[in-house]
């Protein structure tokens, strides 16, 4: 008995995957998904080709350690902005999940977006759901091979262009295109081009719902962000049960049936193959395809819509629903506050940065006239999109002299490193260590300036 039970458990755990054939569906939520797919993929594929101020509108230039996003230029020291944006993304996910479940998964997740495209290609090549199932059951033939080969060829071409575009966010895409045309790609570019291409082909073409059900961690912890006031896709069992087939126009109440005609279309359109009539399940990605198809069936049967709909657990239990609850308010305020702060900080940050590094090989030098000198290395980073000329000023010691006399020219996006020697009369040095303030200001724009602290070391006090 025990052996038979263990065998059944193993067979269920390692059961071969059954291919799903999601039926095409039309309706409000299907149109919203199409709009999301077109918008997101449009931005993904078009942005690398758009130039702004001599560079791509979005370019993460890793060799130069510069990240261009529209008119902003970010540097490695701006990593704090990336951390804050990730925090904003987390709060946005918490907010939308608490408000309406898995909106991200159903409409904006890359896995969902690219799977929609692959499904569309599959339908164009192989036909409808029933035609696809019939084709897969056919014996191997030249016709079947031709259709399958055509589908996979289009998938591969689309995947390769997707990988090419991905690398184009890190290498100027026009240079990348020339490199591919001349078979002159660098090793890391080749790796990521092929890796992302075949990841797209594998995830959207072959794995599909397996990624959502077994690989994505979000499905496992989403329940922690839901409550009884969260809008989720639900089947109205009180109205729909007992389900059963009937002819159009029949009085189903005389047969003691509910509104559900047990057509199973809600299962056929589901991209993860679940039956929403069994209640909310972690495999549900919130795409609302079942709502569209059920509403279509209700229209044909002249029944009211909403047998499957977005609703809350409280509403299903006949209780009052409160969408504007404390967690929604808190998430919203935190999201707006942090995002506003990040944008304000980016817009008002200094367009120039000054770093001062003191030479530690010698505390100080004294010449034959008794003048005390300290040596530094300064780095001036022009974070603006245009070239600037800067003047250097040092305060903290009366009459201190610098080895840099002329204005300093720094190109846009350039880091200029240069030596600096500061000299002071020993009579002005009242202590062994004196704090200095070094500042640079653009000679062509008085609003661009910054300063950095330094330290001047003199002889030990007698």
Automatic annotation (TrEMBL):
InterPro entries: 4Fe4S_Fe-S-bd, 4Fe4S_Fe_S_CS, Cyt_c_oxidase_cbb3_FixG, Electron_Trans/Redox, FixG_C, Helical_ferredxn, Ig-like_fold
Entry superkingdom: Bacteria
One of the record's GO cellular component terms: plasma membrane
Keyword Thylakoid among record annotations: no
Entry keyword set: 4Fe-4S, Electron transport, Iron, Iron-sulfur, Membrane, Metal-binding, Transmembrane, Transmembrane helix, Transport
PROSITE patterns documented for this protein: 4FE4S_FER_1, 4FE4S_FER_2
Transmembrane residue ranges: 25-47, 79-100, 153-170, 190-207, 328-346
4Fe-4S ferredoxin-type domain span: 251-279
A Gene Ontology molecular function term of the record: metal ion binding
Claim: Ribonucleoprotein is one of the keywords in the record: no
Matching PANTHER family: FERREDOXIN-TYPE PROTEIN NAPH
Protein name per its UniProtKB record: Cytochrome c oxidase accessory protein CcoG
Species name: Cycloclasticus zancles 78-ME
